[in-house]
Amino acid sequence: MSETHEHAHDHEHPPHAHDGKPIQEDALPPLEAHVLETAVRELLIEKGVISSDDIRRSIEERESRNPALGAKIVARAWADPEFKSKLMNESDEALLTFGINMSPMELCVVENTQEVHNMVVCTLCSCYPRPVLGIPPAWYKRRDYRSRAVREPRAVLQEFGTQIPEAKQVRVHDSNADLRYLVLPQRPDGTEGWDEEQLAKLVTRDSMIGVSDALTPAEIED
């Protein structure tokens, strides 16, 4: 089946982790960028526009957001059909139960099924659901991932160790400044009766971007 590249969100939602990465990590930003950032920050503090406490609190808030939070959301969706329905159709309201406010952005949750595998990219820059997943991985921001994920998604997925059957459609969703995507991975077999804490251990950052599947029970036991 052909791949689909999603550019827009019409407000209607359809009812393996790995050690290596196919994309090399980015180099550190140029020294000039560090110097400029420091100069601007110190000038804003000196002029009273912001304070060092403001910066500290902002950093702490950002660092508190990480993929573990997204994993809890996915686990709740797996375990609670009512929450899953709300997450798929009224994501803003569902996220409020976890203390997350996506405004002014909108979050679209796309579900992996037996027929469809979803993956997320930002072709223009590095738009990413930071309130849910924290800071994006370096490879997500690289130009080669951003372009190849659209042109040859199956090849990129294979480099992450994710084999998608030919009969299953791959949909590539393009994030932008107003709209971010989160993949709801398929719940692994053999997890019947598991509670949310157990289920969350199966959910990885990469599975919520869509470049890998959720872990299996055997993988977390190893």
By CATH, the topology of the largest domain is: Nitrile Hydratase, Chain A
Q: How are the strands of the biggest sheet laid out side by side?
A: 1-4-3
Shape: globular
Give the class from helix and strand content and strand pairing: alpha/beta
In CATH terms, the superfamily of the largest domain is: Nitrile hydratase alpha /Thiocyanate hydrolase gamma
Helix content: 40-55%
Our Rg estimate from Cα atoms comes to: 19 Å
Taking all residues together, what is the mean pLDDT?
84
Q: Low-confidence stretches at least 5 residues in length (pLDDT < 50)? A: 7-21
Question: Strand portion, in percent?
Answer: 5-15%
Q: How many domains would you count in the coordinates?
A: 2
What can you see in these coordinates?
The protein is an alpha/beta fold and 222 residues long. The chain folds into 2 domains: 4-24 and 66-221, Alpha-Beta Complex (Nitrile Hydratase, Chain A); 31-62, no CATH class. The chain is 43% helix and 12% strand. The protein has helices at 31-46, 52-64, 67-79, 81-89, 91-96, 130-133, 138-141, 143-151, 153-159, 196-200, 205-209, 217-221, and strands at 4-6, 106-111, 116-121, 169-174, 179-184. Helix 3 packs across helix 4 and helix 8 (143-151) crosses helix 9 (153-159). The two termini are 35 Å apart.
